Amino acid sequence: MIVVLGLSAVEAYRIQISVSEQHLDIYRRYAGEEAQLSTLRRNLWLAGNDIRDFFIHCTSIHCTTDQAGVLQAQLAGLRREDARALAEMAPLPELNRKLDDFWAAAEPVPASMLHATSAQQFDFLQRTIVPKREELYSQLLNLAAAGQKRLQRQETEFAETRREAAGRLSALLALGVLLSFVVALLSIRHAENLEREAERHYAKVEQTKRELQQLSARLLEVEEDGRRKLSRELHDEIGQTLALLQIEISHAAGTPTPSPERLERARTLAERSVQTVRNISVMLRPALLDDLGLVPALQFLLEGFLRRSGIACEFTEQGVEDLLADSVKTCVYRVVQEALHNCEKHSGASKVRVSVRQFPDWLVAEVEDDGRGFRNGGERVPERNTGLGLLGMRERASIAGGSLMVDSAPGAGTRVALRIPLSGADRSNHAAGHAAGRAVPNEVVA
Questions:
Q1: How far is residue 147's CA from residue 197's CA, in Å, rounded to a whole number?
Q2: pLDDT (tens digit, 9 = 90+) per residue, 41-77?
Q3: CATH superfamily label, 293-445
Q4: Are 75 and 50 within 8 A, CB to CB?
Q5: What CATH class does 2-179 carry?
Q6: What's the Rg (C-alpha) of the chain?
């Protein structure tokens, strides 16, 4: 639009300059031609008057050679002026010829008519000078009329050129106005799109804020439940078992020969205490994850899931290295653990498939079941009010720099896919494992 307005200004300036120059040139040419024609007409009239006066003077008194010289000088001066006027005009051969004929007849008059009689002078004037002057004067008038017609035609052409220039300028201005409306419309639409986008971002921020608040409250609740469960386990299991063990040991110590039954009960109580401590330790964090790596920890997790739920499990791993970053192992383990917990609690599935694959730059873990599924919201994430487990898994994936995709539909099961980027050390270990000929894939079916 700015370019069009600039072009309009330049075109208007150019039109103004062109019109002014054209108009001035037309009138300059017309005025010049009119001035030269006036000079020719004036000189023609003066030449005729000078010759007439010479004849009249010669009729009243006897003419002298001095008087003839004066007339000769007057006629020569007038002819020089005519020559200058003709030089400034466009070439007119017919006019030049007639002027030459007139001056050829007029210039010899001072010498040839000096001693002529009045009758001879009058006859020469009427037969030679007057017809040639009238013919020339008529042609000069015709030239003046032709100049006026040419001026009118040029004025018409000038007006037409001015109208065409005004039309071009009007078209440019109309284009500028049209472009201004288009720019205004696009600006309004862009502003509306930005406003809608800002509203969507604000809604997402508000939703994320609410989810984070819910997650924080849930985390506090889970932490408190964990402490309560740990306290109950310590009190109900380990505390009571150790109290019974203390009673059995006291009875055995007060008897000279302890009975094998009491010693067996004491040993059983001690083993139960040890198993309870191991269960609590695994619940807090499995030692296999730190000691043997991600794959054994996931296998142990699936075995426990199978014992609790009776749901058939299939586990597949491909190229997973033992020396992964602790953040990667923990994220994958907790996401798979939460996905299995949701499957056990909500899905009603008969089979679960878990796969972990390591690529040069990514680690991908997937948990898929054939349960009842649920309805997804936008962007392939579950709708609201579906619990905070999925929100917690997304937060874990985001903290690890990865992404979590949940794909589910009513009656079509659920698929949870976790994708985590690997650090430089993880990629180096992966390359070294392939160079050493690591066997992949490894499949375990429970």
A1: 73
A2: 888 888 888 888 877 777 655 667 777 788 888 888 8
A3: Histidine kinase-like ATPase, C-terminal domain (3.30.565.10)
A4: yes
A5: mainly alpha
A6: 60
